[in-house]
Amino acid sequence: MRISVKAPAKINLTLDVLAKRPDGYHEVEMVMTTVDLADRVDLTLRQDGAITLDCSASFVPDDIRNHAYKAAVLLRERYQIRQGVHVHIDKQIPVAAGLAGGSSDAAAALRGLNKLWNLGLSLDELAAIGAEIGSDVPFCVYGGTALARGRGEQITHLPAPAPCWVILAKPPIGVSTADVYGRLRVQEIACHPSTEQMIRSIREQDFSLMCRSMGNVLEEVTLDMHPQVRQIKELMEQSGADGVLMSGSGPTVFALVQKEAKVHRIYNALRGFVKDVFVARMLGMPDGEMLA
Ligand SMILES: C[C@@](CO)(OP(=O)(O)O)[C@H](O)COP(=O)(O)OP(=O)(O)OC[C@H]1O[C@@H](n2ccc(N)nc2=O)[C@H](O)[C@@H]1O
Ligand SMILES: Nc1ncnc2c1ncn2[C@@H]1O[C@H](COP(=O)(O)OP(=O)(O)O)[C@@H](O)[C@H]1O
């Protein structure tokens, strides 16, 4: 028996940091939404009880360091499953990019294994298990649009924003999430995004207000380390993007536009500058294929 599950990338429409916590994590407030740039996670039942994994991107770990592998091990141990699984990941989301590719693969594995191993768990239960793998996994279990609080694992669902195109560009640099959070000086944050205004813009489907409400306090940290990320931002702005922001800890930058003609203009301007450019739609609501 084999199950195929979609694992979409997320973007941060806002990312605010409120405090550094004693456990080393940061207290955040983030509005996140999924886009239709997605990995595919195939799960094939193994009767011998083994968990194995292979990924189309050879540099992604294929053992317990892989978030999807970790998800399978956690579920098997917790529910004392005798069967095993072979996980195949078809990687389309760039790695270490601020788009939660690994977290989304883990979430897809949780949703898929819930079916393959007949566990009958709710999405809330899967999200709670996902939080043990990483802060972004609970959001990825649900998909759609949500406010994430705590260290990112406390999810409040939001309606779909006004539909739009998303152009994503990832420069060829690796960014470590832990390093970016580690360099942030919370007391020195000059400008916090308004999470409340972002939520209002989503509820009212006000695209222009949504673009004006975008903000990410990790952006300055990554931009200072990597001037190329700033150049991509400027190029998108000059090419007529309605809203431009770095996603998560970066280095991917995304542009939002409503008019299709602008998509081509921005795409062509970027392609001369950086190889990894993607055009996607905002999914807004959870994709039917994603649900357990
Ligand atoms: C920045 C964000 C925004 O969505 O995404 P990415 O850039 O990774 O996509 C997330 O907060 C990343 O979530 P995730 O990648 O799941 O992080 P985790 O594995 O839980 O943590 C990795 C490390 O990041 C730091 N970390 C993470 C989350 C948080 N709220 N505070 C932190 O300080 C910690 O140093 C932690 O050890
Ligand atoms: N399934 C996976 N896909 C991609 N990276 C993974 C996966 N599992 C573990 N990783 C590791 O997680 C790190 C972060 O990758 P990723 O989730 O793509 O980025 P981000 O946290 O920036 O959104 C990578 O360095 C990679 O080695």
TrEMBL record:
What keywords sit in the KW lines? ATP-binding, Isoprene biosynthesis, Kinase, Nucleotide-binding, Transferase
Top-level class of the enzyme under EC nomenclature: transferase
Q: Which pathway is recorded for this entry?
A: Isoprenoid biosynthesis; isopentenyl diphosphate biosynthesis via DXP pathway; isopentenyl diphosphate from 1-deoxy-D-xylulose 5-phosphate: step 3/6
Q: Which residues are noted in the entry as ATP-binding?
A: P94, V95, A96, A97, G98, L99, A100, G101, G102, S103, S104
Q: Which residues form the active site?
A: K10, D136
UniProt cross-references to InterPro entries, sorted A to Z = GHMP_kinase_C_dom, GHMP_kinase_C_sf, GHMP_kinase_N_dom, IspE, Ribosomal_Su5_D2-typ_SF, Ribsml_uS5_D2-typ_fold_subgr
Which domain of life does the UniProt lineage start with?
A: Bacteria
Name the coiled-coil region(s).
Answer: none
Per UniProt, residues of the GHMP kinase N-terminal domain are: 66-144
Q: What is its EC number?
A: 2.7.1.148
Listed GO molecular functions? 4-(cytidine 5'-diphospho)-2-C-methyl-D-erythritol kinase activity; ATP binding
Tell me, what is an example of a GO biological process annotation in this record?
terpenoid biosynthetic process
Give the reaction(s) catalysed: 4-CDP-2-C-methyl-D-erythritol + ATP = 4-CDP-2-C-methyl-D-erythritol 2-phosphate + ADP + H(+)
Domain GHMP kinase C-terminal spans what residues?
198-273
- Functional description taken from the UniProt entry: Catalyzes the phosphorylation of the position 2 hydroxy group of 4-diphosphocytidyl-2C-methyl-D-erythritol.
Q: Which PANTHER family match?
A: 4-DIPHOSPHOCYTIDYL-2-C-METHYL-D-ERYTHRITOL KINASE, CHLOROPLASTIC
Family membership noted in the UniProt record: Belongs to the GHMP kinase family. IspE subfamily.
Name the record gives this protein? 4-diphosphocytidyl-2-C-methyl-D-erythritol kinase
Q: Which organism is it from?
A: Brevibacillus aydinogluensis
